[in-house]
């Protein structure tokens, strides 16, 4: 009976989506173009280098070397192998869903167990600094200093999620037994690096081609989800479902003394973080702190669009999606609370200090994230060109592979 209800629900949902596309073709097209612009201007060119380099680092054994060196840190804190430190760093630098892709890759190579992978993926998917400072703080709020509060809340909140998820699956055995008294051995790390490279007999050209092909395939999938959820978010608004859901969220926001006008931006952010963050920044009836708290939750929750991307990547392995989803809720709560805690010392006190003193620490200057803002503008201007050239190279690789298969 449960499966029949699920079947009917899914069929009705898809039918409603199709009918809405027919009824609102102009709005659907505009939303699709908006999602496409975000993908080919920013997401594709910013993530592609990280994905390719990550694949090569795994092939050459550098990840195994890092794993040996970081084992004494990652294992006691998060109960994951040392290679999780590499996934964590790359996830923070490149943004979601890089953490999920690398976690799935390590699981496929059996370097981590399924439970360790579920712990790892829960705190290695985060927004990258480029998006927090370039798009949100400068692009939407026109206030670079807000980026400091958002970034601190986001990344510290993610660490708290990792510490919390270490208790996930306590009864399941780890992939390897770890001696906590064991010391770091640089010699062992380089021996593991060398052995990993020797096991990989692929030519460098073949390795590079596979890395490019795998990375672009993942990014094409990400682009599809971004466009799909941009359209879905718009259609939900057009058929007034968003308005109905907002009535429920108004009561929830009122509990935390947040204005009801933030309910619709909040719901939009639950589906797609870019639109939700932009709508939140444009809400006139809320003060800056309230808007920053909601934006912080949206960034941490990461939206159903990103979660669908992660679910698609994890589906290729035995890693369950449910722990990741629960972790996103906790991350949103942690990030929102930390935003409230950090607001006075890192925004109000800084603004007051800036007004009364010309001597400002370098790492807290107003222009400290300026290079991120400049990089964001560079991607907006040249991102489409990078994307088109990369896709052309990808088509060339596929054509060469097809030619080899057809050659007798």
Automatic annotation (TrEMBL):
Which InterPro entries does the entry link to? Gate_dom, Spore_IM_YlbJ
Q: Which Pfam families match?
A: Gate
Span-the-membrane segments of this chain are 47-70, 82-100, 120-141, 148-167, 216-236, 248-273, 293-313, 325-343, 375-400
Keywords for this entry? Membrane, Transmembrane, Transmembrane helix
Protein name according to UniProt: Sporulation integral membrane protein YlbJ
User: Which residue range or ranges hold the Nucleoside transporter/FeoB GTPase Gate domain?
Assistant: 41-139, 219-315
Q: Which organism is it from?
A: [Anoxybacillus] calidus
NCBIfam families from the UniProt entry: spore_ylbJ
Organism ancestry: Bacteria, Bacillati, Bacillota, Bacilli, Bacillales
